[in-house]
Amino acid sequence: MKFSEQWLREWVSPQLGAQALADQITMAGLEVDAVEPVAAVFNGVVVAEVVGKEPHPDADKLNVCQVDDGSGEPVQVVCGASNVAVGQKVPFARVGAVLPGDFQIKKAALRGVESRGMICSASELGLEEETSPGILELPLDAPAGEDFRAWMGLDDHTIEVDLTPNRGDCLSLKGLAREVGVLNRLPVMSPDVTPVAPVHDETFPVRIEDVERCPRYIGRLIKGVDVTAVTPLWMVERLRRSGVRSIDPVVDITNYVMLELGQPLHAFDRANLHGAVIVRLAREGERLVLLDGQEITLNANTLVIADERGPLAMAGVMGGEGSGVSEATRDIFLESAFFSSLAIAGQARSYGLHTDASHRFERGVDPQLTVDAVERATALLLQITGGEPGPLVEAASQAHLPGEREVTLRAARLEQALCKRLPAGDVTEILERLGMGVETGEAGWQVRVPSWRFDIAIEEDLIEEVARIHGYNLLPARRPAARLALRPDHEARTPLGRLRRQMVARGYQEAVTYSFVAPELQRALLPDAVSPRLANPISSDLSVMRASLFPGLVRALEHNLNRQQTRVRLFEAGLVFRGDLDDLQQTPMLGALVCGSREPEGWAGGREQVDFFDLKGDLESLTAMGGEAEAWRFEPGEHPSLHPGQSARILYRGEAVGWIGALHPGVRATLGLKADALLFEVRQDALTRGVLPAFAPLSRYPEVRRDLAFLLEEDQSVQTLLDCVRSQAGQWLEELRLFDVYQGKGVTEGHKSVALGLTWQHPSRTLNDEEINQLVDAIVAESHQHLGAELRG
Q: Which HAMAP family match (predicted)?
């Protein structure tokens, strides 16, 4: 909501500047979005009277005017405005004046006629954004020679407040003034609202059919109004500074009262009303042309104001074009009603509408305002447009109007919430200044909530009111008192976060896929898998819980390949679901998928495709983080998703914990994948398990290295050879490294050459050749006896 600082200060005027006032309002919970001047900077402009007007001798569209600017002598000025006339009071820029945009007025000759100044339009003074069609006409009682800026009160500010939905009581000058008065302990001077005595007895009948949505409706018939009257400049300016455009005096007055008191009003043309005004729900299919020209088809749950012939307006939202006030209007029916906030909020949004009236009704309007608003608007109408008022007509259901509310505020709870004990008298004063009725007791206060505070219903609401009026900045800042024990860090475990970071460091990106997959995809990868089927899936292709991470990763691969991403490296950590609901196992797993080239494309990178051992190396970098890499084994196995001969079962401490291998060609063909892919999946509990790190002193003595090449049958696993070698290598073996596997020339067909590097180091002495030779002989003998391995010459 926008409001004029000067207008607010007519209600309550604290000894604060504009910015300090805005800061105070913000600190009270009503956030100020902007503080802006109401007019651009200009000077040298005075109020003047046009005392003479003659046509320009050499220009048809120009006039030579004589202007009394209060200096004692008429001033000649050439004016091109079509609406300039003798007797007008106008803003006049003297020679030397500076207008907005740093435009300086100088003595000039226009078509040979001297001009000493300029009669100004509203846009030339920065009062309107759009170019004005003519000069700005001032009231006839404007004093000639008076400084225009001071007379108009343009040294003012527009303050824009961004109110939260619960503070609908502040959507008016009255509400904001009430808040400022409370904050500064100042009285609020509201305008006098005196009931207007009726001049005639004629009324217009009113009937409410939906009392739940509209508990109160008040109307008044005013005859003989002059809609062509001019809205006073002071009212036009207040509307402008509040962001509302002047239209005609009737509409301007209803808007003005809405801004002043917070009660939306509407005026109907009496000539277009038939029978009675009826507040009812719309009938399905009824149509209404709104004031903005939009034609809508009404829903059956829309509250409307109607007469005997049909709808006249959307209640609390916008009037209809057919019953609106026009220049031909002579009698008006003035409406002031209380509508339920839920009824208006629902119907306005359903039509994509949001008006000043609906904005207020959605947040709650004081039900006690209806009479005051219509009396205030009547007085202004009689003052500006004339007319003869009739008596008020009221239809109401007291049972459906908001009743009086009482809320208990406990002193102990207030102190606990604020971390501060406030004197009981201060609390009582704050609540009473907010307009609440207060009864003080031993344990606290019994508070009667005023009709305009829809947002106060429970004790916490009262605590908030006391806190913000007392001042949030005056409340102590205290840290919570709690025993914050350090959580134990299991050094023998590898956190999942470290595993994730390791995968990212090796060039992978984490994928997060659905926990439910397409049944046909899961059957293609895991034909024997049993997992729960969803009773109410979001779609048919996401209807079973995943029994493995493979389906989600493969679907992600397909998505990337379809978008020309040929190098894909993904990993995922998540649950898999195996078994029926009665015996469901939910297992955290870590899976990965690679596809494409080994290295990113680049001038220094090769074009080799990723293979089984690349993926196995990435997995071994994870298993090594637990500190017991020797506890992991890879043994040949068959998995329905993986290529026979290029797949392995993963064992940890002898227990099967996962699979690794290339995607099965048959599965690739079924899924329509055009690229090879390799995958692994391992239980998280195995990867995060490990041994406690322990320090071992570094040996100062030299290492001894021997390289041995064994000939093995090609179907013999290298792991069995490594286990055999390690069993005979003794306790001082520091490292056993496989550095070559060779088949070809020089190696018997059906065999392979496996080259191992063995490194020994003693912690307290130098190992001699004799000891090493004995260990080598034992290794060779054991390998030959159990594996048939021969030492390659």
A: Phe_tRNA_synth_beta1 (MF_00283)
Burial-class residue 286 by CB neighbours within 10 Å (0-12, 13-18, 19+). Answer: middle
Pairwise CA distance, residues 774 & 779, whole Å: 9
Q: Are 141 and 99 in contact (CB under 8 A)?
A: no
Output DSSP code: residue 493.
Answer: S
Angle in degrees, 0-180, between the axes of helices 249-261 and 173-184, rounded to the nearest 10: 30
User: 411-418 vs 424-433: helix axis angle to the nearest 10?
Assistant: 90
Q: Which CATH number does the domain 704-791 belong to among 2.40.30.60, 3.30.565.10, 3.30.70.380, 3.30.750.200? A: 3.30.70.380
Extended strands (E) in 163-317 = 206-208, 216-223, 265-269, 277-281, 287-289, 295-297, 303-306, 311-314
| 592 contacts 622 by C-beta, under 8 angstroms | no
- 750 residue type, one letter: G
Q: How confident is the model at residue 226 (pLDDT cuts 50, 70, 90)?
A: very high
Q: CATH class for domain 206-400?
A: alpha beta
SS3 assignment, position 83: coil
- β-strand partners of 54: 64
| Domain spans, the chain | 2-38+157-184, 43-152, 206-400, 405-474, 496-688, 704-791
Would you place residue 128 in the very low, low, confident or very high pLDDT band (cuts 50, 70, 90)? confident
* pLDDT tens digits, one per residue of 688-737: 998 888 888 899 999 999 999 999 999 888 989 999 999 999 999 999 99
Residues sharing a CB contact under 8 Å with residue 698, sequence separation 6 or more, in sequence order: none
- Residue 308 annotated as binding site: no
770 is in an annotated binding site: no
Identify the CATH homologous superfamily for domain 43-152: Nucleic acid-binding proteins (2.40.50.140)
Would you say the CATH fold of 405-474 matches that of 2-38+157-184?
yes
pLDDT 10s digits, 438-460: 999 889 999 999 999 988 999 99
d(CA 165, CA 363): 6
Q: Where are the alpha helices (DSSP H) in 562-680?
A: 612-623, 665-671
Q: What is the pLDDT of residue 784?
A: 93
Q: Could you report the per-residue pLDDT of 174-187, keeping only the tens digit for each? A: 999 999 999 999 99
Q: Which CATH architecture has domain 2-38+157-184?
A: 2-Layer Sandwich (3.30)
Which positions ≥6 away from 694 have C-beta within 8 Å? none
Q: How far apart, in Å, do the first and last CA atoms of the chain sit? A: 95
pLDDT-wise least confident of 29-38, 180-189, 601-610:
601-610
Taking the CA atoms of the chain, what radius of gyration do you get in angstroms? Answer: 44
CA separation for the pair 584, 530 (Å, rounded): 10
Q: Do 402 and 451 meet the contact criterion of CB atoms below 8 Å apart?
A: yes
Residue pair 146/70 in contact by the 8 Å Cβ criterion:
yes
Residue 590 backbone zone (phi > 0: left; psi -120 to 50: alpha; other: beta) = beta
DSSP letters, 686-745, are HHH--------PPP-SPPEEEEEEEEEETTS-HHHHHHHHHHHS-TTEEEEEEEEEE-ST
What pLDDT digit, counting tens, does each position of 206-222 carry? 999 999 999 999 999 99
- For domain 496-688, the CATH superfamily is Bira Bifunctional Protein; Domain 2 (3.30.930.10)
